[in-house]
Design a protein that fits this description.
The protein is α/β, with parallel strands linked by helices and about 250 residues long. The chain is built from twelve helices and eight strands. The chain has an eight-stranded parallel barrel with strand order 1-2-3-4-5-6-7-8, surrounded by four helices. Strand 3 (about 55-60), helix 3 (about 80-85) and strand 4 form a beta-alpha-beta unit. Helix 7 (about 135-150) packs across helix 9 (about 180-195). The longest helix has 19 residues, at about 180-195. The two termini are about 15 Å apart. It binds 2-phosphoglycolic acid. 2-phosphoglycolic acid binds near residues 165, 209 and 230.
């Protein structure tokens, strides 16, 4: 049985103060079941982690640099993230790919660094609308997964989480249908199986992300290959509690 994961991606929202207050308010309302993660801005990591102390909520960053230190103005390393008590990190989010030139190659470097340091990466992949319309979603996901996991052994790969996020569904209010999301997650599981074998494929957790709300979460999470969600906009609202509890 794969334990469901519901991760909130706060993106560039909340200060340490407002984030801690929000986290403190909703953390007691989660029912036992899913693994819950708040992925928050770097500057809020420590405060939010402190705010949920004693609750089964993990904290994650939204990015990291693949080098340990150096002249990389504005960046943060895995050790810096870990020093706040955070245990997770989102890697390769489509907004990072779109606005900060992240590529499958940098995703591979960041993933490798994160697992080496003991962080759990939430590795984002997904197609643009044009690519879906061209009928190349399956091939594209295959390429994204193969490059992201290049040089990563099976045990390490199993310590990661994959998030399938169709770019056209992120922040648009247009959610993939349950069938579209299921099919893509099944494709991703298939690629993972080609790389690491059937047993590993049955264990890797694959989330769906893109306009998940309290209204659509339950049906999405009930699909056989969907092991939870990566939630953006709705993770900033009290509604996030219902999304988490839909994954019980
Ligand atoms: P959304 O974002 O839920 O606001 O569509 C999802 C994400 O970016 O991870």
């Amino acid at each position: 049985m794969r334990r469901k994961v519901v991760a909130g991606n706060w993106k560039m929202n909340h200060t340490p103060c407002s984030g801690a207050e929000f986290a403190k308010n909703i953390a007691p309302k989660f029912e036992a079941g899913a693994e819950v993660v708040f992925c928050v801005p770097y500057v809020a990591l420590y405060a939010v982690r402190e705010a949920v102390e004693g609750f089964p909520v993990g904290i994650g960053a939204q990015n990291l640099h693949f080098e340990d230190s150096g002249a990389y103005t504005g960046e943060a390393s895995a050790d810096m993230v870990l020093s706040t008590g955070a245990k997770y990190v989102i890697i390769g989010h489509s907004e990072r790919r779109q606005y900060y030139n992240e590529t499958d190659e940098t995703v591979n470097k960041k993933l490798s660094k994160a697992v080496l340091k003991g962080l759990t990466p939430i590795v984002c992949i997904g197609e643009h609308l044009e690519q879906r319309n061209q009928g190349i979603t399956e091939e594209l996901l295959r390429i994204q997964v193969k490059i992201a996991y290049r040089g990563v052994n099976v045990d390490t790969a199993l310590s990661t989480i994959i998030a399938y996020e169709p770019v056209w569904a992120i922040g648009t209010g247009v959610v993939a249908t349950d069938e579209q999301a299921q099919q893509a997650c099944a494709w991703v599981r298939g690629v993972f199986g080609d790389l690491y074998g059937k047993d590993a494929a049955s264990k890797i957790r694959i989330l769906y992300g893109g306009s998940v709300t309290a209204a659509n979460a339950k049906a999405l999470f009930a699909m056989p290959d969907i092991d939870g969600g990566l939630v953006g906009g709705a993770s900033l609202k009290p509604e996030f509690v219902d999304i988490v509890n839909a994954a019980k």
